[in-house]
Each structure stands twice: as C-alpha cells, then as structure tokens.
Design goal:
The protein is mostly helical and 54 residues long. It is built from two helices and no strands. 87% of the residues lie in helices and 0% in strands. The longest helix is centred in the middle third of the chain and has 33 residues, at 19-51. The termini are far apart. The mean pLDDT is 83.
Length: 54
C-alpha cells in the first residue's frame, strides 16, 4: 500500500510543470484562437456597427 501511495505521489510531482514552460504555450494557444476566430468575428462586427444607430 505504501509503495502505491509513493508511486502516485511521484507521478503527481512529475506532472507539475514549471510556469516558465506553461506560459509560452498559453500565449501561443491564445494567439492561435485569435487568428482562428478573427476572420469570422470581424465581418460580423462590421455589419453590427454599420446597422447600429445612435
């Protein structure tokens, strides 16, 4: 039983990633999502602003 607990604890420690490694990946994913959604949202935004009356 103790060996199983130690194995689980070691695997949890190994899974913990350094924030310096995670931050560039998060920035890359945000950039990817922006580039993916911008061509769709930009025309919709322009149409909404064109029909918006003050």
């Amino acid at each position: 039983m103790t060996t199983a607990i130690l194995t689980v604890a070691k695997s949890m420690v190994q899974r913990f990633e350094d924030p310096r490694e995670v931050l560039p990946r998060i920035i890359y994913e945000l950039e990817f999502l922006t580039l993916l959604t911008l061509p769709i949202l930009l025309p919709i935004g322009i149409m909404c602003l064109a029909t918006w009356k003050l």
